[in-house]
Amino acid sequence: MTSKVLIIDDTPEYIDMIDDILDDLDIFAAKDGLRGLELASKVMPHLILLDINMPDMNGYDVCRKLKNDNSLKKIPIIFLSANEGCDFEEIGFNLGAVDYVSKPFNSPVLKARVNTHINLYKLQTDLEKEVQKATSEINDLNNEMTYLAASIAEMKSKETGNHLKRVSNLSFMLARSLNIQISEAQKIKMASILHDIGKVAIPDYILNKIGKFEPQEWEIMKTHAQIGYEMLKESHFALMQLGAKIAHEHHEKYDGTGYPQGLAKDEISLAGRIVAVIDVFDSLLDKRVYKEAWSSKDVREYFIKMRGTHFDPKICDVLLENFDAYVSLRESDFDA
Ligand SMILES: [Fe+2]
Ligand SMILES: [Fe+2]
User: Is 199 tagged catalytic?
Assistant: First the structure.
C-alpha cells in the first residue's frame, strides 16, 4: 500500500513542489488548517507536513488539535516553515512534532525525512497491533484457564447447568447495576468464577450427598471457602487475589453469622457481598442433587426476608428492583 501524506499549506506553489518531490507517495493537500483537520480524519495519512504561518488557524494550533484527537494524535507531523531560528523549532517539538523542514526545500532531505518518519510510524503501529494481539491472546488464555480450573470443582460436585458461567455473568451485571466501573466489574466477572474452587478438596460423598449433612459433614463442606482462599492467596496476580477474596467471603453473611470468618457488613468486600447474593440467587433457581429448583416467586420472597441479615440490603434492593430482568437474564444463557 502506498503511503499517504497530507500537506497543509496555504501556498499552492509549495503544495505542487512537495507533490513533485514525493512523487512515489499518495499526496493529499489542504490550503488551511480547518480543511486539513477534516482531511486528516478522512484519509488517515501516515504523515502530515504542516505549514506554520497560515491565516486563521496557524500550524501550531492545527498541531494542538491533532494531538488532542485520539484517532489522529499518533500520526507524525513535520513542520514546514520559512521561519528561521530555534524558537520555532522548539515550539514545534514541544507540541509533539517529530521533525522540522525549512523552506525552500532541499528535495533529497525532505524525501529522506518523510520516508524515515513514515517507516518509523508504520513500525510503531505494527508493533502496537502485535502487542494488542498478544495481550488479547494472553487474556483469552487466562480466562480459559481460570474457567477450566474452576470447572474441575464444579464437575466434581456435579453442579451441571453452567452455575459458574451464570454467577460470573450475573455478578458482572449486578456490579454494573451498582454503578461499579466497567473495568472493576470485569474483574469481578472473572474472579467470581473461582468462588467454589475449594470444593476440589471436599470428598465426593459429601459434595453429592442427597439429604441432610451430618454436623461433621457440614463442617467439612464449609471448609471449601477457606481452602479456596488458601489455594489462590499466594498468587502474584491481582485477579487471583480477588478470586481468593471472593472464595473466602462468598458464604459470609451481612449480619456476621456466615462462615468461615464471621465477617459483617463492610468487613466483607463489595465483591464478596455481590457474589454472595448472586451465588444464592442462582443456586436457589437451580436444581441440585439435594434440592429441586425454587420458583422465582419463592426466591424473591427469600431475598426480601434475608435483606439485611444474610445479604447486604443495598445490593439486595438492586437485585429486587430488577428481579424479573435478572431471572430472565439467567435463563437466556447470555454472556455479559
Ligand atoms: Fe460455596
Ligand atoms: Fe456457587
Answer: yes
From ligand 1's centre to the CA of 251, what distance in Å? 6
User: What residues have their beta carbon closer than 5 A to ion ligand 2?
Assistant: 196, 279
pLDDT in tens, 258-311: 999 999 999 999 999 999 999 999 999 998 877 889 999 999 999 999 999 999
**Which candidate, 111, 31, 63, places its Cα nearest to that of 101?**
111
Examine the pLDDT at 85 and tell me if it is beyond 70: no
Which one is catalytic: 165, 199, 245, 253? 199
Q: Give 4-20 as a DSSP string.
A: EEEEE-S-HHHHHHHHH
For residue 272, what are the contacts with CB-CB under 8 A and spacing of at least 6? 245, 246, 248, 249, 250, 252
The phi-psi region of residue 60 (left if phi > 0; otherwise alpha if psi is between -120 and 50; otherwise beta) is alpha
Alpha-carbon 60 to chain mean position = 35
Domain layout of the chain by residue ranges: 4-129, 157-331
Segment (H or E) for 49 = strand 47-51
Domain 157-331, CATH class in plain words? mainly alpha
Q: How many CB atoms lie within 10 A of CB 204?
A: 10
Pick the ligand that lies closest to the CA of residue 164: 2
262: left (phi over 0), alpha (psi -120 to 50) or beta: left
Structure pTM?
A: 0.73
User: Taking Cα atoms as reference points, which of 286, 250, 289, 297 lies closest to residue 269?
Assistant: 250
CB atoms within 10 A of CB 219: 11
Neighbours of 141 (CB within 10 A): 10
Longest dimension (CA), the chain: 93
Q: Residues with Cβ within 5 Å of ion ligand 1? A: 196
Q: What is the CATH number of domain 4-129?
A: 3.40.50.2300
Sheet holding 47-51, edge to edge: 26-30, 4-8, 47-51, 77-81, 99-102
